[in-house]
């Protein structure tokens, strides 16, 4: 068991972090400032928006304006969710350079989240991948509910492996494994990753863990021991999925960076700048930071 020497951190706050924000719509200018601050902190991969139906997810209704409004930092990849061809066309028009399709290991969650079965979702994704590839845009894949489903309960690792393999075979350059409701524990997470890595090379897998039960950091350490070296996280621990009741935010970027720092694993990201950004955005939303590290440092204003 060896830990990775380098980890690529994929920032989720502007998308997964804000998509479920209750109350008033977060202003487009705030989203743009958040993305630009994250890039200034040295984050090189940012999920900036989601081209889904604004009737389903109102907070992402300004995805085109966000993508067009950001001042891009060279070397930073700004990506967006695209559940179907309509979303992809809108994303291409807004100048995205990477998109993501999102499926699930649970039938019930697939129906609630994207209004179709797992099999139908894969059929829907195939032309999205073809069109994206012909436009020179990379596609990432997500599998949700990899460690449990809000409707079906426990999920067999083999079911996760099957969907991950289908997304990879279709052409997704990376498959991100989502503990959507944050119920996993380290051994269960290891078993799941081991099963999936029989079907998809481990270096093409990412961990996307929500922190509902406070296990995300332990789970990340466990799966890094299995060879995972790409981690999704949201600054301020923001977020939750609108179709997974009770799910809390993603593991906080600040907490992941603190862990990696302590392990001597390089990310090239400035932890202090991320803490400041997390403090700023959580204040702007009227929340306490969801990051333990930010709380421990005191909520300094940015
Ligand atoms: P649907 O209603 O089945 O779609 O939605 P439809 O094709 O029947 O179209 C119905 C209407 O939606 C039409 O409009 C379409 O134009 C419109 P109308 O003619 O009625 O006025 N429409 C769209 N509008 C804008 N952009 C689009 C689009 N597509 C259709 N792309 C759909 C299917 C997938 C669109 C819908 O279910 C949806 O938008 N769902 C949102 C799901 C979502 O965003 N969930 C949260 C993100 S996933 C997540 O958080 C998990 C993750 O973080 C990993 C993890 O944690 O596990 C990734
Ligand atoms: Mg998520």
UniProtKB/TrEMBL annotation:
One of its GO terms (biological process) is ketone body biosynthetic process. Gene3D superfamilies: Aldolase class I. Residues 7-275 form the Pyruvate carboxyltransferase domain. It is an enzyme of class 4 (lyase). Its EC number is 4.1.3.4. Pathway: Metabolic intermediate metabolism; (S)-3-hydroxy-3-methylglutaryl-CoA degradation; acetoacetate from (S)-3-hydroxy-3-methylglutaryl-CoA: step 1/1. GO terms for molecular function: hydroxymethylglutaryl-CoA lyase activity; metal ion binding. Keywords: Lyase, Metal-binding. Belongs to the HMG-CoA lyase family. NCBIfam families: PRK05692.1. This is hydroxymethylglutaryl-CoA lyase. It comes from Vreelandella songnenensis.
């Amino acid at each position: 068991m060896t830990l990775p020497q380098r980890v690529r951190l994929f920032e989720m706050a502007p998308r997964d972090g804000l998509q479920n924000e209750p109350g008033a719509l977060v202003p487009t200018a705030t989203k743009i400032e958040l993305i630009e601050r994250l890039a200034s902190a040295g984050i090189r991969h940012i999920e900036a928006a989601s081209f889904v139906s604004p009737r389903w997810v109102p907070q992402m209704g300004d995805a085109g304006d966000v993508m067009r409004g950001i001042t891009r930092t060279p070397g930073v990849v700004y990506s967006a969710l695209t559940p179907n061809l309509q979303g992809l066309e809108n994303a291409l028009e807004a100048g995205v350079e990477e998109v993501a399709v999102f499926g699930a290991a649970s039938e019930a969650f697939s129906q609630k989240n994207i209004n179709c079965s797992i099999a139908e979702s894969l059929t829907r994704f195939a032309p999205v991948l073809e069109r994206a590839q012909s436009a020179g845009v990379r596609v990432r894949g997500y599998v949700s509910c990899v460690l449990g489903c809000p409707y079906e309960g426990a999920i067999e690792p083999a079911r996760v492996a099957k969907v991950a393999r289908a997304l990879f075979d279709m052409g997704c350059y990376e498959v991100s494994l989502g503990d959507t409701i944050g119920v996993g524990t380290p051994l269960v997470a290891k078993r799941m990753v081991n099963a999936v890595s029989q079907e998809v090379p481990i270096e093409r897998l990412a961990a996307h863990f929500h922190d509902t039960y406070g296990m995300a950091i332990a789970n990340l350490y466990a799966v890094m021991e299995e060879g995972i070296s790409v981690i999704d996280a949201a600054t301020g621990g923001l977020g939750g999925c609108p179709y997974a009741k009770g799910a809390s935010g993603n593991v906080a970027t600040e907490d992941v960076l603190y862990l990696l720092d302590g392990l001597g694993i390089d990310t090239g990201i400035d932890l202090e700048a991320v803490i400041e950004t997390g403090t700023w955005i959580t204040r702007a939303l009227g929340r306490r930071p969801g990051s333990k590290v930010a709380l421990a440092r005191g909520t300094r204003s940015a």
